[in-house]
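User: Hey, my collaborator sent me this sequence without any context and asked if I could get a structure. I don't really work with proteins. Can you help?
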Amino acid sequence: NELLWRFPRRRLEAEAIRDAILFVSGQLDFTMGGSLMPLKDRTYVTGTASKQQQYDNARRSVYQPIYRSAVYDMLTAFDFPDPATPTGNRQESTVAPQSLLMMNSQIVHTAASRLAAAALAAHRFDSQRLEWLTLTLFGRRPTDEQRHAILDYLQRRDGASADGEKETRAQWESVCRVLLASNEFIYID
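Assistant: No problem. I've predicted the 3D structure and written it out in C-alpha cell form, which is a compact way to encode the shape of the chain:
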C-alpha cells in the first residue's frame, strides 16, 4: 500500500458491528445523550448484574456503559480493549469465536428474525426478497453465485409440511443469519 493504489481491507470495530446489526434490522435507537447506567454514582461497585440485563437495549454502542467486571460478549469477541488498563491501539484478531458469536448470539437472531419478517412482508417472490436483503446489508445486488446458492437452498422447502409459512420464515431467518455473519457485512473493502 505504499503507492496508495487501494485502501487496505479493515474490519469494523466491535461497537460498529453491533450498531450495524441493530441498524439494518430497524432496531437502532438514535436517542442522543443520557445514561444507561441504572445506579447512582458510587453505588455501583461490582458487576453483579447479568450481562444481558446490562446490555439488552438498542441504544448506540457509544452510550453503553462499560462494566469492567462484565464486558459485553460481542465487544470482547471483537477485540474490545481491557477497560481496566489504558490502551493506545486496539489489536485485531480473526478467531473462531467471532464467527460462532455472529451465528449464535441473541442480537443476531433477533436481527435475522426482523429482517426475514420485513423481507417476507415487503416482497412476494424469493428473488425479490434476496435482492432487497443484499441491498440492505451490502448496498449491492446479489452476485449470480449468491443468487443461485440461496435460491437453491430455499427450493428445498418441504411442500408437504403442515406449517409451510413457519418453515419459510425459518429458512429466511437462516439466510439472514448467514448474510449477517458474512465477512462482507463486518469488513470494509
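In plain terms: Residues 81 and 89 are 9 Å apart (CA to CA). You can pass these C-alpha cells on to your collaborator as they are.
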